[in-house]
Each structure stands twice: as C-alpha cells, then as structure tokens.
Amino acid sequence: MQMQKWIMSGLFFAACAFAVVLMFTLPGKAEVAEENKPTMPAVALEAASAEATVKANCITCHGDQLQGGVGPSLQQEGGEHDAEEIFTIVTKGRGQMPSFRDKLAPEEIANVAMWLAEKK
Known about the structure:
Layout: H1 2-25, H2 29-36, H3 47-57, H4 59-62, H5 83-92, H6 106-117
C-alpha cells in the first residue's frame, strides 16, 4: 500500500512537471496568429531590388517575363491580390508553391509583394 502511494505521487509530480514544460514551450495565440497571417513590414518600394529578387527566386516557375509556366502568370498579379495578400502567399506558400520564409528576409518579400501588386 505504501509503495502505491509513492508511485502515484511520482506520477502526479511527473504529470505536473510535464504540464509546466508544455506551458512554456507551446506557441501562444499571438505566435499562432502570426504564423497564419504574417505581418508585412513597412518598406519603401525598390523596384530594381524587387526585380532582382524575382529573377533569382521566381522565374524558374513563373517564367522570365512572369508569363507563367509551372506556376501561374504574375503579369497581372496586382489585379488579383494586394501587397499584403501577396506577402502572405510568398511567406507561407500556397498549393505547390513553397514558402520563402526561410529563403528571403521579410523586407525582401514585402518589396517583391509591393512590386507585384503594381502589376495590373
């Protein structure tokens, strides 16, 4: 009987310790919201830089004139999405398009999003 008490106390202590660890390691509501809808940083549009970023990262799928190919045409992307929507798509990825979160800085993605948003 005494042994069962020690085992139960040990299990209770382990469960409490596990709960405390989870409280500090699981993402909070703000982090989950940021992951679902990333916030576009405020940047000034630098068209030459955006075009260079697109040439280095996007033409393989979207074509050298943004005419499309494996991915859709981006020639009139601004008519379909605003800069914030484009920023979210590029950051998170969508469908077969991969996320560029780990490849480009948020400021680079924002610059490209603003540049593409002007294409109507």
